[in-house]
Write a structure and sequence with these properties.
212 residues; alpha+beta; seven-stranded mixed beta sheet; two-stranded antiparallel ribbon; 5 helices; 9 strands; Autoind_synth_CS; EC 2.3.1.184; Acyl-homoserine-lactone synthase; Acyl_CoA_acyltransferase
């Protein structure tokens, strides 16, 4: 089950948002050993203060958070422009109300004990959710900064990115910037191998249309 959390309904999901920050600390700080800020066991950065939208994958039986991803408008603060501009060719600016940025894609490492099928299911759910949000909001693209690990996940999920510029080694990993064109065809390519034939988002009450 996938929930869309934004400023207007965030109070309803405070507990899950807190779980998300704990999960991000486990994934990005403990498991991947990224240089991120962790406070009281929770990974939080400045972009969490920029009115992001979150997609939260929740186990419908247990109510436990199993995965999450964040979306930011490229017309405001975002990671590609403000942190990883080295990935952009000279003079290129990715800024449009029709392009949002995804970041902090993470899945509960404990799901590894449940086998690949559950991990793949949550991955597919999050990716389909990103496309669904894009279609609802009238986006043309989602841009993302990601490492080689995520590049492999995108390819294996039939969700390849159009790479912007050249990959750069940042810290421990090769880092890429890529654009994903939002379309119903992309949703079908991701969902069909997993046997999904229905929208994954549980409810969207307030999401604005970026093209309006």
């Amino acid at each position: 089950m996938l929930y869309v959390v934004e400023s207007k309904n965030r109070a309803k999901f405070n507990a899950l948002i807190d779980e998300m920050h704990v999960l991000r600390a486990r994934v990005f700080h403990e498991r991947l050993q990224w240089d991120v800020n962790v406070f009281n066991g929770r990974e939080v950065d400045v972009f969490d203060e920029a009115d992001p939208l979150y997609l939260l994958s929740v186990n419908p039986q247990t109510g436990k958070l199993e995965g999450a991803v964040r979306l930011l408008a490229t017309t405001g603060p975002n990671m590609l422009r403000d942190v990883f501009s080295v990935l952009l060719p000279d003079g290129l600016v990715v800024e449009s109300p029709l392009i949002w940025e995804s970041s902090r894609f993470c899945i509960d490492p404990d799901l590894a004990g449940s086998g690949a099928s559950r991990i793949n299911r949550v991955t597919t759910e999050l990716l389909c959710g990103l496309v669904e949000v894009g279609l609802i909001a009238g986006l043309t693209h989602i841009v993302s900064v990601f490492d080689a690990r995520m590049a492999r996940i995108f390819r294996s999920s039939n969700c390849p990115a159009d790479t912007i510029g050249k990959p750069v080694r940042i810290g421990r990993v090769m880092t890429y910037a890529g654009l994903f064109e939002i379309s119903q065809d992309l949703w079908n390519d991701i969902a069909s191998p997993a046997g999904m034939n229905f929208p994954v988002i549980a409810e969207v009450q307030h999401l604005p249309n970026a093209a309006a």
